[in-house]
TrEMBL record, chain B:
Family: Belongs to the binding-protein-dependent transport system permease family. FecCD subfamily.
Main location: membrane
InterPro entries: ABC_BtuC-like (IPR037294), ABC_transptr_permease_BtuC (IPR000522)
Protein source organism: Paenibacillus segetis
Stated name of the protein: Iron ABC transporter permease
Annotated localization: Cell membrane
Length: 341, 345
């Protein structure tokens, strides 16, 4: 299902660490750019002094600290989360089309969100996030359940089809809840997908989960490399595949769930980035995972920046923007995999 | 993905069974009409309905029946039939059991053009309704052409699964474009468009009926005349060619008709999916695979489905009216998943 190279795991540590270092530099540059550009442009020197010598009486400093910085950091976390979740899923399922948006996780999380807004208004962000974990789990569980029930087992296509149908179901249900409880106003901004409203309090709650899950992903990355060779080979190499799968699934739910709770159901980051990472650093997940994290952050931060500067003062939802990049890529994958279809 | 094996495609049910099934479906539609009148914010009991139909009702009852409910019911019947037939044709020519104008993204394409058009009008101006089906046809046709081109391979022609995956992706792209467009709308127009997208037939009037009726009335008989060709085609392209049918030209004509039926329906009802999937499937179970029976039965099931969904939408969560498209999605997506699970590869 993957390319021929995956027959043998070969990594290129020097090239890979170079690429990751370069990506980190790009990410830092784009973070500074994203803070300084926008409805009101702020000089980079002011950005620097706002971060390192904060002056609460300075309006530009306030804009940076209260609006731009949390937004950009939100983008960093969300991008890393979606991308690493996608990378793990692709390695685990050996399915090149795996992505939390395509496999029902995002719409399940969205449904959980709608229920929370309707029945438990004023729920704290912490519980909201835990609910989206559960929702993502239900969505993923249903897609996998259905596609493994099918005669002939799961194929990439079946997963995508099941994901599409389930997303239709969940979004219809969410929309009915939204209509009935008249919560359209409060939830619409979130569905459109964007990091615009990210608050420090949200970031602080989300941060430990995301960091823990990313570390977890790096810790099990070697096992994921083995699993990506196939269940049999991994077992032969002494992997306890069930444990690895369980841990990896939990990591995916935490990553996708917390990202969705901040940014809304943004698809295609998890599809696009791991492929790019695999292209750059080879097929070893010890390199793919950190590289995906950095590139995912870069993509979301840049998408958010473009969303702000394309047509100010209006903002384009980054979900839509990323889809426009992601869809041609999806089509490419769908065509490439034709022997499978 | 799901190909009818040849013996199954040739499975012929008695004609009398077909007529019986169609009669029962017709009766069910009438029963649902009566039930539909008896539910909702303002309702007419069956007796009042009968009196009103005979012309003995009060002015208020006549107003409710003639101005509010009847156009809505007629639209449900027409849209259901149009979408189901469109799905039936697409499944026939692609020999893919999961084909449906909604899943293939054609509804979304038709919708995008309609939304673009409606949103450029101010809310007070009357939109020229008759133009909408044409615009929808333009959007749906362009989308169909795009999907067809993207999934065409010189070596292997059109493969059913690739067609569907491409359809899903193109549909997602159109939805993204729609989200971006909707941001520019005024609040009033935004509400209008989002209701429309959810598949809403609550606000329809006789003008909508008049704009949709010619399409359905002209295209449905045409489809029926092609039922024998669809039978031949369901045996497989090679066999159809062997039987002397100019396959690709006929396929293209029928595809155009299918897009026309779906697009004109969607231009009035908004985004209602899954009808084209469910109608033909249930019909095939009831009357077998011969298109002489399959086509009319699909159309009747489609009508019944939409009118039922519309009634449920008004009744289940009163006073909130659930847009019909959402009810159909809640019935339709589990059915899609069931088909997917059952499919042999």
């Amino acid at each position: 299902m993957m390319t021929k190279d995956s027959q043998e795991v070969h990594s290129r540590p020097f090239a890979a660490s170079g690429i990751i270092a370069l990506s980190i530099i790009l990410l830092v540059i784009s973070i500074f750019l994203a803070i300084s550009l926008g409805a009101a442009d702020i000089k980079l020197s002011v950005v620097w002094s706002a971060i390192f010598h904060f002056d609460s009486s300075n309006i530009e400093h306030q804009t940076i600290m209260e609006l731009r910085l949390p937004r950009v950091l939100g983008g960093v976390m969300v991008g890393a989360s979606f991308a690493v979740a996608g990378a793990i899923m692709q390695g685990l399922t050996r399915n090149p089309m795996a992505d939390s948006g395509l496999l029902g996780l995002n719409s399940g999380a969205g449904f959980a969100m709608a229920i929370c807004f309707a029945f438990f208004p004023g729920l704290s962000f912490m519980y909201l996030m835990l609910c989206t974990f559960v929702g993502a789990g239900i969505g993923a569980g249903m897609v996998y359940g259905i596609s493994s029930l099918t005669r002939g087992g799961m194929t990439p296509v079946r997963l995508v089809l099941a994901g599409a149908a389930l997303s239709a179901l969940f979004s219809a249900l969410s929309e009915i809840i939204t209509l009935h409880f008249n919560i359209g106003q409060s939830i619409a901004f979130w569905y459109a997908g964007g990091v615009a409203g990210t608050k420090w309090s949200q970031l602080l709650i989300m941060f430990p989960w995301v960091v823990a899950a990313l570390l977890g992903a790096i810790i099990i990355s070697r096992s994921i490399s083995m699993l990506s060779l196939g269940e049999e080979i991994a077992k032969g190499l002494g992997q306890r595949t069930k444990v690895v799968r369980l841990v990896a699934t939990i990591l995916v739910l935490v990553l996708a769930g917390s990202a969705v709770s901040v940014v809304g159901p943004v698809a295609f980051v998890g599809l696009l980035i791991p492929h790019l990472a695999r292209y750059l650093v080879g097929v070893d997940y010890r390199w793919i995972i950190p590289c995906s994290a950095v590139l995912g952050s870069l993509l979301v931060v840049l998408a958010d920046l473009s969303a702000r500067i394309i047509n100010p003062p209006q903002e384009v939802p980054i979900g839509a923007l990323i889809s426009l990049i992601g869809i041609p890529f999806f089509l490419y994958l769908a065509n490439k995999e034709r022997r499978e279809l | 993905m799901i190909r009818e094996s040849i013996p199954e495609a040739l499975k012929i049910r008695q004609k009398s069974t077909g007529w019986l099934v169609m009669t029962v479906l017709g009766l069910l539609i009438i029963a649902m009409f009566v039930l539909s009148m008896n539910t909702g914010f303002i309702h007419l009991s069956p007796l009042e309905l009968w009196e009103t139909l005979l012309g003995h009702g009060t002015a208020k009852q006549e107003l409710i029946l003639l101005q509010f409910r009847l156009p809505r019911i007629v639209i449900s019947v027409l849209v259901g039939a149009g979408l189901a037939l469109s799905g039936c044709i697409m499944q026939g020519i692609s020999r893919n059991a999961l084909a449906d104008s909604g899943i293939l993204g054609i509804n979304a394409g038709a919708g995008l053009v309609v939304v673009l058009f409606v949103s450029t009008y101010s809310i007070t101006a009357e939109v020229p309704k008759f133009a909408l089906p044409f615009l929808a046809l333009l959007g749906g046709g362009a989308t169909a052409a795009l999907i067809y081109t993207l999934s065409y391979r010189r070596d292997g022609g059109i493969q059913p699964t690739r067609l569907i995956l491409t359809g899903i992706a193109v549909g997602a792209g159109i939805s993204s474009a729609m989200i971006v467009l909707m941001l520019k709308l005024s609040e009033q127009n935004y509400k209008l468009v989002s209701l429309w997208l959810a598949g809403n037939i609550s606000g329809v009037t006789w003008r909508d009926v008049v704009s949709l009726l010619p399409w359905i009335v002209i295209l449905i008989p045409y489809v029926f005349t092609k039922s024998r060709f669809l039978n031949v085609l369901s045996l497989g392209e090679a066999r159809a060619k062997g039987l002397g049918v100019s396959v690709s030209r006929e396929q293209l004509k029928l595809l155009a008709v299918a897009v026309g039926l779906a697009a004109s329906s969607v231009s009035v009802s908004g985004g209602i999916g899954f009808v084209g999937l469910i109608g033909p499937h249930l019909a095939r179970r009831l009357v077998g695979s011969r298109h002489e029976l399959l086509l009319p039965t699909s159309a009747l099931i489609g009508s019944l489905l939409v009118i039922t969904a519309d009634t449920l939408g008004r009744w289940v969560l009163q006073p909130t009216e659930i847009p019909t498209g959402l009810v159909v999605a809640i019935i339709g997506s589990p059915y899609f998943l069931y088909l997917l699970a059952k499919a042999k590869n």
